[in-house]
Amino acid sequence: MPELPEVEALALDLKGRLDGRAIVRIDLAAFMALKTFDPPLQALEGTFVDDVTRHGKFLDISVGGLHLCLHLARAGWVRWKDQVPAAPARPNGKSPLAARIVLDNETCLDITEAGTKKSLALYVVRDPLDVPGIASLGPDPLADEFTPAMLAGILESEGRKQLKGVLRHQGTIAGIGNAYSDEILHAARMSPFKPASSLDEAELATLYNAIRDTLGDAVDRSRGLAASELKGEKKTNMAVHGRTGQPCPVCGDAVREVSFADSSLQYCATCQTGGRPLADRRMSRLLK
Fold first, then answer.
1. Going by C-beta distance under 8 Å and a sequence separation of 6 or more, which residues neighbour residue 140?
2. Known PROSITE patterns for this protein (predicted)?
3. Residue 281, pLDDT score
4. Which of 227, 163, 238, 151 is nearest to 198 (CA)?
């Protein structure tokens, strides 16, 4: 799933490609992806792109006073094409294509979603805050106003909730998903199950620095990369996420995993839990 660093890089890449270009047409291939009807999608046709920005994990393409907001969900992506394909973008249950944005220089942007579980979402709105997911976002962890004091207030208000869940919840802190929450907690040497309100002053400073440094470094590495390069860049720079069974780059212990119904987390027991493996609840149920 694209998270803050990848969406930030996507916005920067698309800004350079789309700025000042006119949208000739938008072909919708997955009708369920479009979540709004007023303004209509066709209202964007014939207008010029003004800007491309990010809100958490949402892309925001500003077009002629309107906003095309895009949430890529778990398996969505954007693919730039230097030439519009001859085959039209038509509804096809087997195709990953959700929508195609055709530009006035005969290039196009394909919005795709792999897999059978379709949750990619497109919104055409007058104000980004008209998108419920954007309106409910928590603070951006790389914004100047995201201070240690703000993080302390968030953790205190979350009480005994586990750090992993707090970091991932978009209404609490925007932009961090499954992968970077694993990486942040590994950098902070903290258990994913540690209660949010249990951090002392030193631990709070450590977590704050891990959030800013992990995300900031990922943004710096991704800046300037084309969309086609971002997935590989993210994967090759993970310390624990997606690396179950491989050696921890800090201590050499094997990276462990906890599985849930539709996701999993990775961590290093030596670095994060004092050498104690965390209970894998799904496996425990299967063994009963």
1. 4, 56, 146, 174, 175
2. FPG_CAT (PS51068), ZF_FPG_2 (PS51066)
3. 63
4. 163
- pTM, two decimals, is 0.91
User: Facing residues of 109 across strands?
Assistant: 80, 101
What does the block give as tokens for 116? Answer: 């059978």
Residue 87 has a pLDDT of: 80
> What sign does the dihedral 22-28-33-35 (CA atoms) show?
positive
- H helical segments located in the chain: 4-18, 132-135, 148-158, 163-168, 178-188, 201-222, 227-236, 269-272, 281-287
Phi, psi of 150 (to 5 degrees): -65, -45
Task: Say how far apart CA 109 and CA 11 lie, in whole Å.
Answer: 13
How many beta carbons lie within 10 A of that of residue 106, not counting itself?
A: 11
A 10 A CB-CB count for 46 gives: 13
Note whether 139 and 176 are within 8 A (CB). no
Query: Could you list the mean pLDDT of each consecutive 10-residue stretch along the chain, which spans 288 residues?
Result: 91 92 94 95 96 96 96 92 86 82 95 88 98 98 97 97 97 97 98 97 98 95 83 89 96 94 91 92 44
Question: Domains of the chain (ranges plus CATH)?
Answer: 4-135 (3.20.190.10), 148-287 (1.10.8.50)
Could you identify the residue written with the tokens 């799933």?
Answer: 1
> H or E element: which one contains 98?
strand 97-103
Q: Rounded to an integer, what distance in angstroms lies between the CA atom of residue 256 and that of residue 12?
A: 35
175: nearest Cα among 212, 221, 130: 212
Distance CA 255, CA 192 (A): 14
Compute the radius of gyration of the chain from its Cα atoms.
Answer: 20
Joined tokens for residue 266: 């990775």
Find tokens 């976002």 and name the residue: 137
